[in-house]
Automatic annotation (TrEMBL):
<keyword id="KW-0472">Membrane</keyword>
<dbReference type="GO" id="GO:0005634">
    <property type="term" value="C:nucleus"/>
</dbReference>
<dbReference type="GO" id="GO:0019901">
    <property type="term" value="F:protein kinase binding"/>
</dbReference>
<keyword id="KW-0333">Golgi apparatus</keyword>
<keyword id="KW-0812">Transmembrane</keyword>
<keyword id="KW-0732">Signal</keyword>
<dbReference type="GO" id="GO:0048471">
    <property type="term" value="C:perinuclear region of cytoplasm"/>
</dbReference>
<dbReference type="GO" id="GO:0016324">
    <property type="term" value="C:apical plasma membrane"/>
</dbReference>
<protein>
    <recommendedName>
        <fullName>Epithelial membrane protein 2</fullName>
    </recommendedName>
</protein>
<dbReference type="GO" id="GO:2001046">
    <property type="term" value="P:positive regulation of integrin-mediated signaling pathway"/>
</dbReference>
<keyword id="KW-1133">Transmembrane helix</keyword>
<dbReference type="InterPro" id="IPR004032">
    <property type="entry name" value="PMP22_EMP_MP20"/>
</dbReference>
<dbReference type="InterPro" id="IPR003933">
    <property type="entry name" value="EMP-2"/>
</dbReference>
<keyword id="KW-0963">Cytoplasm</keyword>
<dbReference type="Pfam" id="PF00822">
    <property type="entry name" value="PMP22_Claudin"/>
</dbReference>
<dbReference type="GO" id="GO:0000139">
    <property type="term" value="C:Golgi membrane"/>
</dbReference>
<comment type="similarity">
    <text>Belongs to the PMP-22/EMP/MP20 family.</text>
</comment>
């Protein structure tokens, strides 16, 4: 049982790390001389334009920002609740709340990645003034990490439900 708990803790920390990296790093959509994420658009490496609320075209990107932040927060809260429940609750009652919070994290990252998948063309149209050929880009590793984090948080949420029945 101790090995299983250690595996789950490592798996949960890996999920949180993936969420942090995919939320923060500037590689959701990359091209030859630009990269974009949910926070900014960078040409070369040094010239970055921050996406803010004054840009009406970015409402869907703001939804992605909010969902990614929520998923990261839920994942961290789920880990703290897991640690508290590990020592406080009776056997058989453990980890239901942790599982619910982790599945909420999974839902939020799925919503964020789905919105970005559907609406990243709006970002392309909005940055034409930067003289970039953003249509020639491709999804970056942060976007892929977001989908991997979705799978990890889903698996860990289900593992917590299964683990609650273990002795």
């Amino acid at each position: 049982m101790l090995i299983l708990l250690a595996f789950i803790i490592v798996f949960h920390i890996t999920s949180a790390a993936l969420l942090f990296i995919s939320t923060i790093d500037n590689a959701w959509w990359v091209g030859k001389d630009f990269s974009t994420d949910v926070w900014q658009i960078c040409t070369n490496i040094t010239n970055c334009t921050v996406i803010n609320e004054n840009m009406a075209e970015y409402q869907s990107i703001q939804a992605v920002q909010a969902a990614m932040i929520l998923s990261t927060v839920f994942c961290c809260v789920a880990f703290l609740v897991f640690i508290l429940q590990l020592f406080r609750l009776k056997q058989g009652e453990r980890f239901v709340l942790t599982s619910i919070i982790q599945l909420l994290s999974c839902l939020c990252v799925m919503i964020a990645a789905s919105i970005y998948t559907d609406r990243h063309e709006e970002l392309h149209e909005a940055v034409e003034y930067l003289q970039l050929n953003v249509a020639s880009g491709q999804y970056g590793y942060s976007f892929i990490l977001a989908w991997i984090a979705f799978a990890f948080t889903l698996i860990s949420g289900v593992m917590y439900l299964i683990l609650r029945k273990r002795k």
